[in-house]
Amino acid sequence: MVGEPTERGLNIVGVGEAPSEGLRRGVVVNMEKTVRGITHAVDAAQRMCGHKLESAYVGMAGTHVLSQNSHGVIAVARSDREIGHEDVTRVIDAARAVSVPNDREIIHVVPRGYVVDGQEGVKDAIGMSGARLEVETHIITGSLTAVQNVVKCVHQAGMSVEDLVVQVLASAEAVLNDNELELGVALVDVGGGTTDVALFADGSVVHTAVLPVGATHITNDVAIGLRTSLGEAEMLKVNYGHAIPANIPREARRHLAEIIAPRAREILEMVRLEMRRGGHDGFLPGGIVFTGGGCRLLGFTEAAQSLLDLPVRIGSPAQTIGMSDQVGGPAYATAVGLLRWGTKLRHHANGHAPVGAGASALYARTVRWIKDFF
């Protein structure tokens, strides 16, 4: 997806799609097929927008993506005790200094909130006065091998990687609003090979996880249950499938729903367990926002509302112009979110603080080592 920021919103000027045949559960398993898919998608987007694409913001998924929370504390350096950008950088680096195995790499360090001389709830500490600065952060790590393989595939497709972004955070940029972020909300991105979960409270992310099941597993179940091809199974799932068999009259379509329902329930049960692990099971006033192509299954959100007992809505990218009809569905949330993420990073690099998810000038503090790694 190619876009440009305007005063009216994000203007989408190019889109390209290709089957992700070289990926399994968000991880590269076939370099050649993955490179081919990226190349085809990029070529289509280039033809549409009329520009040569040289670099990209790239989404990262897979069950190797793990998260933890960390705390950092420093003494304010300046004699007048005014907290500056350097102090914020130092305290985040202090929080970043966690023990990470050699086969893993930190992808994101997301500030959740600051504490200035014991005063909690500070969203932006720059300019405040104090002698002691603390920060609570959410740290996301990934397998070094998995990250390297994604970057290699993009490079072999003729592009450089501006930044890697965990996909659920990118999706959050596209579909969540500030009110939901402050109240507390769960974002569940139902993709093909994985389902990504992120919990937000007080304006920032507090828990993330990647579950090893997604919409492709439902398609596989249909193919096995009806003894048909994967292509035919996908068509049947999308056009006639339903997650609640009881809502379907007793006919062939009811049998299809009976095949689909157990896997849909499994996904929702895993989401509920992950919310419990994140400490927010049943305590999210903003409810649950589902996005990703997998959530379009008929009856899925009704099943989610019944099982999870929280308000549920489908999250589609907002405030886009140009090709909003084509990319306005939940399947495009991650791609639109990556564009928003890149826009905020460049805005911050020009001396402006980004706004929105996290409400922190360092919300998008992502790794830069990937540019020099190869």
Question: Can you characterise this structure?
Answer:
- This protein is α/β, with parallel strands linked by helices.
- It has a domain of 140 residues: Nucleotidyltransferase, domain 5 (2-Layer Sandwich), CATH 3.30.420.40.
- Helix content is 38%, strand content 26%.
- It is built from twelve helices and 16 strands.
- The strands form five sheets. A five-stranded mixed sheet has the order 13-12-11-14-15, with helices on both faces. It has a four-stranded antiparallel sheet with strand order 6-9-7-8. The protein has a three-stranded mixed sheet with strand order 1-2-16.
- A hairpin with a 4-residue loop joins strand 11 and strand 12.
Class of the domain at 178-317 in CATH?
Alpha Beta
By helix and strand content, what is the structural category?
A: alpha/beta
Strand content: 25-35%
Strand arrangement within the widest β-sheet reads: 13-12-11-14-15
Q: Can you say what the CATH homologous superfamily of the domain at 178-317 is?
A: ATPase, nucleotide binding domain
